[in-house]
Every structure is written in C-alpha cells, then in structure tokens.
Amino acid sequence: MQPTQTTTLAPRVLARDLAAVPHGEPATLAGWIHRRRVLASVTFLVLRDRSGLAQVVVKDRETVEQLAGLPEETVVEVTGIVSTNESAPGGAELVEPTVTPLTEPAAAPPTELWRPTFGAGLPTHLDHAAVTLRHPRHRAAWQIASASMRGFRSALGALEFTEIATPKLVGTATESGANVFTVDYFGRTAYLAQSPQLYKQMLVGVFERVFEVGPVFRAEPHDTVRHLAQYTSLDAELGFVRDHRDVLAVLRLAIAGMVEAIGEYAADAAALLGVELPRVPDEFPVIHFSDALAKVGADPDEPDLSPAHERALSEWAKTAYDSDFLAVEGYPMGKRPFYTAPEGYGPNGPRGSSGGARGAEPPVGSNSFDLLFRGLELTTGGQRLHRPSDYAAAMARTGTDPAVLAGYLDAFAHGMPPHGGFAIGLERWVGRLTGAENIREVTLFPRDLHRLEP
Amino acid sequence: MQPTQTTTLAPRVLARDLAAVPHGEPATLAGWIHRRRVLASVTFLVLRDRSGLAQVVVKDRETVEQLAGLPEETVVEVTGIVSTNESAPGGAELVEPTVTPLTEPAAAPPTELWRPTFGAGLPTHLDHAAVTLRHPRHRAAWQIASASMRGFRSALGALEFTEIATPKLVGTATESGANVFTVDYFGRTAYLAQSPQLYKQMLVGVFERVFEVGPVFRAEPHDTVRHLAQYTSLDAELGFVRDHRDVLAVLRLAIAGMVEAIGEYAADAAALLGVELPRVPDEFPVIHFSDALAKVGADPDEPDLSPAHERALSEWAKTAYDSDFLAVEGYPMGKRPFYTAPEGYGPNGPRGSSGGARGAEPPVGSNSFDLLFRGLELTTGGQRLHRPSDYAAAMARTGTDPAVLAGYLDAFAHGMPPHGGFAIGLERWVGRLTGAENIREVTLFPRDLHRLEP
Questions:
Q1: Does the distance separating the beta carbons of A102 and B186 come in below 8 Å?
Q2: Integer Cα distance of B214 and B197 in angstroms
Q3: Judgement on whether residues A276 and A326 belong to the same structural domain of the protein
Q4: Which residue numbers mark the site Important for tRNA non-discrimination (chains A, B) (predicted)?
Q5: Between 20 and 30 A from B109 (CA), which of A147, B13, B190, B409?
Q6: Residues 6+ apart with CB under 8 A from B54
Q7: Cα pseudo-dihedral A363, A368, A373, A374, rounded to 10
Q8: Would the CB atoms of B185 and A186 count as touching at under 8 Å?
Q9: What's the whole-number average pLDDT of chain B?
C-alpha cells in the first residue's frame, strides 16, 4: 500500500490509517457499514472504505438503537475517539462514536457481503454486480487487474513506448472474418475491432514502439469459461527487432512490470485471495513447437496444442526450469494470421519468406510464439512480415483483396522496419493468477452470448 | 526526454544520443531515410528514428549511388564513424557510412515528409495516415496526447484512484437516447457506450475513486471541426465529496499532472509545435453561470453558453486572473443529465433535492461545472445525485422507466456516498494546446460521418 495522499477533500481518516492516530485523539471515518455485530453489552460496527475495514465500538444505547435502522451497506460518517487496542483489526478502533448517515438506509444485498466467502453463485453476482463487486474478494480481483495495467504501462513507458488509441470502428473485418460484431455506421456497415493489430503495426512506422490498453470485441458464439464478448487487451508492438525472440524479451519485461506493480499496489488484494505471485525468470524458457508436440506425445502433424497439452507443458516447465512461464515458438504458419513472419525471416528474406506453403512436409514454422502461464495460453506474439512484396504474396495466398486493406498496406509500401509484438488478455491473466474457475469472476460487468446487463 | 533504456534488442544508437558517442568511434543508427540532399561533392542523408533526426555524411561514390536507389522513407541501418561537428544537428554526425536496407525501397509518400510544414491538405493526410502521421508535426501532436494520458493516470494513481474497464456494449441507450450507434449483438440490439458514466458511478460504490481512459462513441450526424464518432475520454469519479468544488479540485490535479507529463515526456514535441504549456493555478477561478451570462451581456434566461460566450469568458479570465482556465458552475438543471445534483445538494437533501423543477423562475442551478480552456469547453463535471429517492424522482421527472436502468439503480438502493466526477476529451485537449483548427489533425485515424478508413 502506498502512503495516504492529501487532497483538498473533507478531513477523514482511512481505515488503514486509524492506528496512526494517537490514542485518545478524535477521528472521523467514512464508508459503508460492512457489518453490525450486536452483543448484549456492546455493538461492533465494522466500517469498510477503499483502504479496508475498521472497527467501531458502540456502547451508547441511543447509537445502538440508531444502528438498528442503518442496515449493512448504508454509507455513514463516524466520528469518535481512537483507542489503541491490540485485539482490534489493525491495532486500533473507534470508541464513543457519533454516526451520521450520508444517504438513505440501504436495501439488503442479494447476499451478505461481510461473510469472508461470497455466499451466492456466479449468476447472482453478475446480475447484481453493482453491489456484489463490493465483496472484498471481488474487489481484490479487480485491484490486481488495475495494478497489472499500471505495471504494464510503467514497464513499456520506461522502454519509450508511445501509448496509442486506435479505432474500434473499422470498415473491414478481414483480419479474421469470423466472430465480428456489425455496427450500423451512419447507414453503412462497420465492424467492432477484434484487436488493434493492424493499427499498432502501422504506428510502429510512426513511433517505433507503441502500446495500447483497451477493449477488444469478439462475437464469440460459444459459452465457455474463458471467452468474453469484450475484454481488455494489453497490446504492444515494436520495430527494429531481429526476430520474435526480441519481442519475447520485451514481453518478459512487461510481465515483470505487472508482477512488480501487483506487489506494490495490490499486495493486500493478492494476500486476501491467496495469490502466489510468479517469479519472472531472467529469460522465459523456450521450446520449439515440434519439440513440444514430441514432449507431450502428440502426433507430429498436429497443427496446434490442445488445452491438455498446454497444461502438460507447463508442468514440465515447472519441473525442468522452476518456471511458471513457458514460451512455445515455431507454430506452423497454417494456423497463424497472414501477417505472421515465417521461421528464419529477415530483412533480406531467406527461408520461408513467401509466407510458407501450406501442406508442405514438414509444415513451415513461424517466428511466433504462445506464452503459457500456469497451464494456460496467456499471450500470442511474434514477428510480422514487413516487406511489401511479402504482404502481396500473403494476400494472394489467402485470397484477400488488397484493396480492402489499402490503408494498412500503405505502411509497408512506404517503409517499415522488421517488427513484432504481442497481446495479453488482462482478464485471463487475472483469472489465472487468482485461480478463478470462470473468467467472468474477474471481469467488471462481463459481456457474453447471454449477457448485456448490467 | 528520459535517458535511453537498455533492452536486449540489437545494439543501436538513437539519433539523439549520437553526440554522446566519442569522436572517432563506430556507431550504428537505424531508422527511416528522412531526406537525401545530393550536393556536388557530398550527399547528406538525414535519418529519422523515434528520438529525432541524425545526419550522415556520404562521400564514397558507391554509397552515393546506392542511395540513389533508396528513396525517402526506406528503412535502413547505417554503420559509420561518429564525428563531432558543431554545425551538424545535435552536434555530431556519422561519416564513412555503410548503408544496409532493412526492407525494399519505399514508394514516394503523398507529400514530402521532410519539409518542416506538412505540404498537403487534411483529406490527403487522413487518407494516407499510416504514412503521413510520420511527419514530425503530426507525430509530435500525438506524443503530446500520449504524455497527457500518462500524466492523467499518474496524478490519479497518486490519489489512490483505481483504474477500471467498463462495457462498451450496453443494453440501453438511456443516458442520452440520441446519437448512439446500434450493434447486432447475437441477434439482439446493443448500443455502443457514449460514456462510462453509469459504470464509473456504480464503481465508486466499490472502489470510491475510479478512472478510465478509453474510447467513447457518438453517432454525431454533423460534420464539424470539433466532433468525432470515436474519441478518447479521460474519465474520473470519486466518492465522499462535499460538493462539485471537491471534484473541481481533483480535476485541477489531473490537469496539472497532464501538463507536467508533457513537460517531462513530450517537451521536444511541444517545442516543435510551439505549444505554450498553460500555467495551472493553485485553484481554478470559478464564476457562477448567472454571473457569466451577465458578464458577456447575455439574456439571463439563456440555458447555456454559446461558443462566443465561452471565448469571451476565457479572455476575461486571462485578464482578471492570468488564467488559461475558468470553471463555470451552477448551470441550469434543465440542460444537464438526470443524475446531476442541484445546487445545495447534500447528504440530507436541502434545496432542490427533487432535481429542480423545470421552468421555475429563476431556474434551479446545478452542482455541475464546465471547465473552459483557452476559449473552449474542455470538460464537464459535477456532483451527482446519490440517494435512491432522488433517482426515483429524476426517473419520474424525465419519464424514464426505472426497469431499463435497474442494474445502475441497484447501486444507489444499496448505499452510495456523495460523489461526482468529470470527463476530459483527450483530442480536444491536444487540439486546443496545439492550436489545431480541426480535431482530426490531432487524432490517430479519426472516425466521422464520412470516414471509416483507414
């Protein structure tokens, strides 16, 4: 936790700072009534604010009666005397309180939020997210997400990446024709961007190194525990790389920044959820796709790794390298998007520079990778094609009309450096860290096939 | 400019660091051929990278001939000997170079990018943005935008705001029924969010202080120089405020952070564009709406300020307070959204708590403000209603069916603190700072009534 900041707001002590007030001095807390515990001779009021919980001891009969009319979640200001008390949470409590409601008495939440474990199922949580996100465990999961974004930006900012903001409304859905939402755009059809991929590449031509943290949209027609119709993508792209290994090195720095920021800004949240932060090694261990297939005993012609393969490979990396991360490189070109660079791709275009013939034996590998984290694919990244003639070949190979990508192909015709990048799914990262069974548990107001509310 | 960071990428000297290499030592630059100047006995090659420009002196005939085949914008690596030379830009140049192209020779850009002033009109720029954004003046404008986002987050992070990511696909368009894009959402109709307003309020109930930097969407049917179909909104919302003045104080800190970050991370860009950074006063001067009308000689019944009024008021603030900023508070309730708190609004609901009767004489003012910056409305903000009964009254007054906002109203029924917030339009901010005549000049790939490409 960082130190309290002063603002010009009303004087108020945060729950976590109560013990720093000298014993016997007055103090004002403000927050939500987290819990009332009525005993025979005393009522304990637990107050929740953004910093945590504080205990208020109520003995005065009038205040005890007042509290009977102020249910849990009512927002109040409480002024009293600080009493140092080792048995109180945080080492201090407020006594002789005056309680002032700041709004009307709260309605009862769908489940008691003060219980350490969230007491209702996922549908109840999602239907009432505005209230149930207040449960400390839900709140903590997003605090980890927030800190992760901060760490991602901080790491890339230190490497002179420029933050970009790219169009979410696009005229063509050619990056991947499937699973795209259509928008009525002033009477024309537009699409919601599935990723900032094409724009971040174009902007490497302007800024060399760019990143974007923003929403991406997938009209995912399947109801799974790990897909959403909108999620937050942490995207980066950089120029003047030798190959995908340079991209992987930057990905490692970004993830190290994310882990560090969780430790700095969300340590309490991580502790509450029992999150064990991963050690980020000096280099991610790397295995080639064909070796990975062999390692898990899969058919050498398999074009992709199954979830079971990913889990097995992660276990192997944990044993062999004591690493929670494993990069798999050299995926077959056939399963990768058209802008993917083949293995051995360079400025002067050696092996595979035509984009890789499909069905050749053995299949042409790519300069791309997946990063596995604790058994799950967290990130896809790699080197991209950068020569205009390679794009022309890729268009021809995939039967894409270059006219629909004219604005994008412009960048390559006018000079682009060797480059590559990656994208991390924020919610997937947090889900894996916290061990959530369903990605919706760690998403604010998730969107899916069935859910557009709240 | 911050110091160069080391990564594991290929050894390369940035243009701005060339003079730090000892005279006579070898160095490798990499970047775009910005300009070739062919004189009788020497060819000057100006190389552009993310840090700026560097000069390369070519005397060797073979290299001169090679350069004839490498047009401007071709990406090259240049290895040579550093020569300290006071007449060279930056104080050093590279001599005896070996030039290695990193891609194919570039096609000619739509206008020469090396000329100090961008030589084509706005339509040409926007049609070829992937290339023309490379012009140093265009690039500089976005570097100011990027630094501004960084400063915004840094200021709010220091105040313990939690970053949020809210749905851009929403089920109801009730915040403002007009100018909304519709999306085919798995066979249902969804809308693109016009702002994160309702979500950031709900999340004040979870985190107290939240911010989001993200895209917002307006189906703006008018072709103006200051509206876009998508722009970047810097949104903040915080709880436990006394009134809108506390919100304004945080807005001031956010803007101070933005200005400071431009000075720290985009000073060269600001200098190139002749941007005079505003002084951020210790407090923004504030004028009441009714006094503002009187000051500009407008009819006291006017419900809003015209652009001409805003300019006149800004001029007055500059003269009276030496301030580029002026907050106008107390706008009539009638022109503000339903969640706006009326003047005098407090936890215990004094004057105007019903939301303000329309047509009353004089009209009920609101606890909201506009912030004018150099003649233009930059930000709208203010205090919101927080009591459930006030929302019930506002729903009734505006004829809104509470059922369509059920998920939002949930937050208030279950206890919300007094709160407020604001939103800054990023592109509008940068446009005003740089003196752009059209907001499209400072937007990456703008979207409007006519434009969905590139």
A1: no
A2: 12
A3: yes
A4: 89
A5: B13
A6: B15, B18, B29, B31, B46, B47, B89, B90, B93, B94
A7: 10
A8: no
A9: 92
Burial of B392 (0-12, 13-18, 19+ CB in 10 A): middle
Spatial separation of the C-alpha atoms in residues B2 and A156, rounded to whole Å: 13
Query: Do A85 and A179 lie in a common domain?
Result: no
pLDDT at B417: 97
Mean pLDDT value of segment B381-386: 97
Q: How confident is the model at residue B346 (pLDDT cuts 50, 70, 90)?
A: confident
CATH of the domain at B85: 2.40.50.140
Say if the Cβ atoms of B169 and A230 lie within 8 Å. yes
Count the domains in chain A: 2
Band of residue A354 on the pLDDT scale cut at 50, 70, 90: very low
Please name the residue ranges forming H helices in B173-239: 197-207
pLDDT reported for residue B362: 57
* B413–A8 CB contact, under 8 Å: no
Angstrom distance (rounded) from CA B413 to CA A131 = 9
Same domain assignment for residues A104 and A135: no
A199/B contact by beta carbon, under 8 A: yes
- Pair A327, A313: CB distance under 8 Å: no
B395 and B356 both lie in a single domain: yes
In a domain, B451, yes or no: no
| Three-class DSSP category at B221 | coil
For the segment B164-175, what is each residue's pLDDT rounded down to a tens digit?
999 999 998 866
Q: Are residues A191 and A53 in the same domain?
A: no
Q: What per-residue confidence (pLDDT) applies to A71?
A: 97
Question: What is the domain extent for residue A269?
Answer: 131-442
Residue B158 sits at the chain A interface (C-beta within 8 Å): yes
Residue from B4, B14, B50, B168 to probe the interface with A (highest A Cβ count within 10 Å)? B50
Does any CB of chain B come closer than 8 Å to the CB of residue A208?
yes
Residue B79: both structure tokens together: 């290895």
Averaged pLDDT of chain A: 92
Instruction: Pick the last residue of a domain from B61, B77, B108.
Output: B108
pLDDT band at A220 (very low <50, low <70, confident <90, very high): confident
- Residue B357: predicted pLDDT: 43
- For an interface test with A, the pick among B138, B442, B452, B453 (most A C-beta atoms closer than 10 Å) comes out as B452
Q: Do B103 and A142 touch (CB under 8 A)?
A: no
**Do A47 and A90 reside in the same domain of the chain?**
yes
- Chain B residues lying within 8 Å of A452, measured CB to CB: 169-171, 185, 188, 190
Task: Tally the residues of chain B.
Answer: 454
pLDDT score at A117: 95
B228 is in an annotated binding site: yes
Is residue B311 in some structural domain? yes
Among A25-34, A200-209, B54-63, B331-340, whose mean pLDDT is lowest? Answer: B331-340
3-state secondary structure of A383: strand
For range B264-277, the mean pLDDT: 98
Residue A104 sits in the same domain as residue A136: no
Nearest to B389 by CA among A73, A78, A72, A106: A106
CATH number for the domain that contains residue B168: 3.30.930.10
Asked whether residue B276 falls in the same domain as residue B330, the answer is yes
| Minimum Cα–Cα distance from A386: chain B residue | B103
Q: Is A452 within 8 Å of B171 when comparing Cβ atoms?
A: yes
Closest partner residue to A181 (CB to CB) among B106, B185, B413 is B185
Contact map slice: B 98-117 vs A, CB within 8 A? 100-104, 106-107, 109
B146 lies in some domain: yes
Is B122 contained in some domain? Answer: no
Do the chains contact at B131 and A447, CB–CB below 8 Å? Answer: no
A142 phi, psi to nearest 5 deg: -75, -30
Looking at B321-367, which runs of residues are DSSP E strands? 325-329
